Each structure stands twice: as C-alpha cells, then as structure tokens.
Amino acid sequence: MTLPVLIFQFIASGLTTGSTYALIAIGFSLIHNATGIVNFAQGEFVMLGGMFMITFYTFLKIPMVLSFFLTALAVGAVGMFLERGPLRHAKSKEILILVMITVGASIVIRAISMMVWGKNPMTLPPFSGEAPLILLGAAVMPQSLWIFGITVLVVAALNYFFNRTLTGKAMRAVAASRRAAILTGIPVDRMIFLSFTLSGALGAVAGIILTPITTTSYDVGVMLGLKGFSAAILGGYGSMPGAVLGGFVLGVLESLGAGLISSEYKDALAFLILLMVLFLKPSGILGRGKLRRV
Amino acid sequence: MRTLRERILMEKKTKLYLIGYAIVVFITPVFLGNNYHLMVLNVAAVNIIVVLGLNLLMGYAGQISLGHAAFFGLGAYLSGILTTTCGFPPWPTILLSLLVTGGVAYAIGIPTLKLEGHYLVMATLGFNVIVYIVMIQFDRVTGGPSGFPGIPHLRIGGFVFNSDRRMYYLLWSISMGVLLLSLNLIRSRVGRAMAALSHNEVAAMCSGIDTEKYKIGIFVMSAMLASLAGSFYAHYITFISPGTFSIFFSLQLVTMVLVGGMGSLWGSVFGALLLTVLPEWLHGVKEYNVLIYGLVLMIVLVFFPRGLFPGILQILDKRKVVRLTESARLGKEAP
User: Fold this and answer.
1) Bridge partners, residue B155, by sequence
2) CATH code for A3-280?
C-alpha cells in the first residue's frame, strides 16, 4: 500500500474508535454539566453495554434491535442506580468525595462483572457481514460504517433533544446555572437523575457497537473510560460538540501514532496527548477559558 | 480558638501517643515468630510512608493524586536499575531517585496546580498510565512484564538488611520518622498556611498566602515521599514488576487516605495498616478481594466522608460525653 492509502486506512480506523471515544466523552460531559463531578464509572458503562448485549443477543437469542434497546435500558438503569443509591445518600456533597464514590462504584461493577461473566474475552458477531469494503484503496470493515453511522445518529438525536425539547433545554439550564434553574422551577433532582440514566445508555451504545471489533472482557472499562475522558478534556470538558470533536481527534491521532510511530506505545500516546492539552490549553479545543475567581 | 493551656495539653498528648506508638511498634516483632506476618507489616510500613505524603496533599492542599503508584514506581525502578544495572551505591541512589521524582512531580505540578479545579487528578492519572506502559514496553531496561530481579539488599558497613526482621526495624523507623516530620509540619507556619488553603483557597490568598507555591511544594514533597518508599520497597523485596505500580495501587493509596480520614495523619497510619493487612486476612476469599475493596471504599465515603478512623473516634467521643453527663447527673466525679 502506498503511504497516502496507508494514512487513509489509519484515519478510517481512527474515526471508528474515535466514534466510541466521542460517545463516552459525551457521557462524561452530561454528568459533569449536571453535577460538576467526573464519573469514573463511565468506562464500566461501556463494558456493561457489551456484556449485556452478549447476554441478550447471543445467550438469550433476543432479536438484535430489541437486544440493543434492552441493553441501553439495562445500563441506563445501572447509571440511575448509581445516582439514586450511593451518590444521593452520600453524607458529604463535596465534589472530591462524590468523585471517589464513582471510583468505588467502578471497582464494584468490575468485580461483579468478573463474577457474572468470567474472565475470558467475549465478542459479538458484526451487525452485517465480515467482508471488508474497499474505499479509496483502503479496506474498511462494514462494522466501522455501523459504528460511525450510529454515532452520527446518536449525536444528531442528542442535538435535537438538547435544542428542541423542553426536558433537554431544562438540562442545559441546570448545566448553565443550577441556582437559576431551581428558581425557574426546573426539577433539578430529576435532571441529574436523567443525566446519569442517559450517560449509562450512551455508554451502553458505545459498548454494543465497539464489541464486534475489539471483543470485550470485564476489565476493558478502565482504559475505555480513560480514553473517553481524555477525549472530553481534549475537546473542552463539558462541551458537547467538544466531546465529539475530541473523540474523533483522539481516535485519529492515536491510530496514526500507532501506525506510523509505534504500536506498543499506542495507549501511552493518548495520555501523552492528555498531558499536553492540560499543559498547553487546559480548556481544550472548543472550551472557553474560565475566568479565575478571586 | 484553643487556649494556650489546651494547646500545651494537646502537644503533651501527641508526645505520649508517639511514645506509646513507638513502643508498640518496636515490641510487636518479639511476638511474631512468623516471617510472613513480618513481611505484611513491612509492606504496611512502606505504604504508611506513601499514604502520609498523599494525605498531606489531599487533606491540606485539597488535591487528589491518582498517580502516586507511579511516583512510588519511579523510586523503585530508579533505585533498582541504577544499583543493579549501573552498579551505583544504594544509599546515594535513593537520594538521587528522590530528587529525580521530585523534579518530575514539579514538572507535572507547575502547569496543573495553577489551574482551578481538579486537573491534577487527570494529569497524575495520565502520568500513571504512561509510566506503567513504559515499565512494560521498555523491556531492555526495565525487564518488561516479567519484572526486574536481583536488586541488592541495603547495608550499613558490614550489616546487611537481608531478613524480614532487620528490615522491620529499618522500615518502621523511617515510617515513624515521616510521621513525626508530618506532625511537626502541620503544626508549623507552613502547616497553618496549608490548613487555611484547604479550608478556603480564596481567603488564604487574601491573607497573603502564596497558595500556588504551597500547593506545588506539597505535591512535590508527597511525590518524593512516595519515591522514598518505593526505593526502600525495591531494596527490601529485591524484585519489582509493573503490576505493583498500576493505577489500581494509586486507587488503593487514595482509599487508605480516605478510610483514615483526610487531614488526619494518625488516621493515615490506621488506614494504611488496615487496608494492607485486611486483604491478607481475606486471602481465602481472593475472588471477592477486589469487590470488598470497592465496597469498603464506597461505604466509607457514603457514610463516613471524614474517614473511618475519625468517624470511630467521634462515636467513642460521644459515648464519653454521654458518660460524663450521666455521672454529673448522678452527682459523681467524672471518671
């Protein structure tokens, strides 16, 4: 393969993984905007997405589309439980404490998943066919198109939700100013609850579409969560378009770095980018610099 | 405000606690015939050093590091590689590793601690992942996933620290030294500045405290303590492998601080000891080890956000108060 084709190949696979990073990053942003905390269990939502889908589709033989929605519901429920359970009942509402509670939750979810689904990696069949398509000389898996397509669809749906529906607008209001939202009569509690559920469902979607390509096991959540988190920082933490852009940029950079420089340090590269963003422009690509309050 | 009398009383109490603690620590090995128990306690002493440093950062600078396993690992690998591969003398190498790790922490701290919010968590987390990957991939130097063996024991003159018992006294002396230093530090001017900083950063700034300088200083110091512990760990176990220095260990360290209570140094000793020994007790239920760890972390955070140790103290304190009022009602002298 010539270099341009090779690069195109890397970009295509970068956009594929980048799509899932984008979905995870949106999940981070949603919860951050509603509550100000970093939800470290986000990666576990992705892992659970893959696991539930395998359970419903492969083991219980439920039709694919139905399994897809059941999985999103199930993981959404896990997100809901995380908020309704430990986070709501925490005696201290300090951000630091709440963040560490989500860390604890992620450990618990991982441990339980290991007991339920075992330690062996599992996979899903691709949504349609395994024969690669040839696009501009590069081989692209049909699953990549599914991943990319579903991500675009989800982002479009979220865009509609946040700009056109009352609930979506209310959630944005909470993100902008919690106090003002309370004063205008928005049920802030319900919005927080909703963001956790939505985050869970988004994580599930990311897990479902990614599993046919990468396989899944109980411990994939940590890395995926951290990558999605880096993507969110890269794009500008809390910004929805930033999360999408950050996801794609991180995916492509990672893929190019792995292909052209060194595949052994592929995972390190993502975090090197994270460190560089924090050092150079901590507000991210699309984030607005916050004024320092004194 | 505490009166002077109360302060003097408190200092006397602290001194008594320290002496009592030292006596217990030095007598304990006499009752332990089993080397395995000694080893667990030695690892606990190493953890106490790291956790004390981390607590200074969390409890007094209000910042969390999820990268202390990496600083611990830097100390261990630098000491291990430099003494084994390059033939450096161990003691000066410990100091060198300390300085290098401090420099790395400074480089991470400068840009991130200037920002408001919890950027340090993310930066240290990313840093830990990178260090872990380098330990595994850079196998020509680090030995890769199979680890780095053959690190020499420490020695002073002809005396070699090659048994668990000998290391016990060395490690626990150092951990007590670090505790004493930390206790003194928080009672000093620096400590008061840090306390102000953790309560209200803006107010601290307004009273003329250079909060940025203090935050960076504490972060560097706590990374250096982690490196110190790492170096001693390497010379004690004489074999290191990347698994020990993953983010999971960073999380364990943070859990130890939280269980002991942020800002409570004695609590850190308790937290580190409990969470090092507990998994050993739970050895029979290895499958559930991680689950129990996560549950402990969550339960402590949800119900005792100030830490399990201060929580228990508070409950005991309340009982004492109740007892006192009861005896007052009965017209008796309080015990």
Assistant:
1) B160
2) 1.10.3470
- Minimal CA separation from A237 to chain B, in Å: 11
Question: Which residues on B lie below 8 Å from A38 (Cβ)?
Answer: 118, 121-122
Q: Give the model's pLDDT for residue B332.
A: 45
Q: Using the 8-state DSSP alphabet, how is residue A293 labeled?
A: P
Query: Tokens 């990614």 identify what position?
Result: A210
pLDDT digits (tens, 9 = 90+) for A51-105: 999 999 999 998 989 999 999 999 999 999 999 988 888 888 888 788 889 989 9
- Both tokens assigned to B88: 């450096």
Identify which of A188-197, B22-31, B111-120 has the greatest average pLDDT. A188-197
A261 to A127, A201, A203, A223, A265: CA distances (angstroms): 32, 35, 30, 21, 9
Query: Using a CB cutoff of 8 Å and minimum separation of 24, what contacts does B161-164 make?
Result: B161/B235, B161/B236, B163/B35, B164/B35, B164/B38, B164/B39, B164/B42
Which of B125, B205, B294 shows the shortest C-beta gap to A107? B294
3-state secondary structure of B84: helix
* Tens of pLDDT, residues A90-112: 888 888 788 889 989 998 999 99
- State the pLDDT at residue B155: 86
Instruction: Write down the ipTM of this complex.
Output: 0.81
Residue B126 half-sphere exposure, CB side, CA atoms within 13 Å?
Answer: 25
- The alpha carbon of residue A177 and the mean position of all alpha carbons in its chain are separated, in whole angstroms, by 24
d(CA A23, CA A45): 11
Residue B41's nearest CA partner among B183, B164, B180 is: B164
What is the C-alpha separation between B287 and A71, in angstroms, rounded? Answer: 27
Q: What percent of chain B has pLDDT over 70?
A: 91
- Cβ of residue A274 closer than 8 Å to a chain B Cβ: yes
Distance from CA of B219 to the nearest CA of A (A): 17
What DSSP line would sit under B159-221, residue for residue? EE--SHHHHHHHHHHHHHHHHHHHHHHHHSHHHHHHHHHHH-HHHHHHTT--HHHHHHHHHHH
Mean pLDDT of B261-270: 89
Domain coordinates in residue numbering, chain A: 3-280
Helix A3-35 crosses helix A220-235 at what angle (to 10 degrees)?
Answer: 90
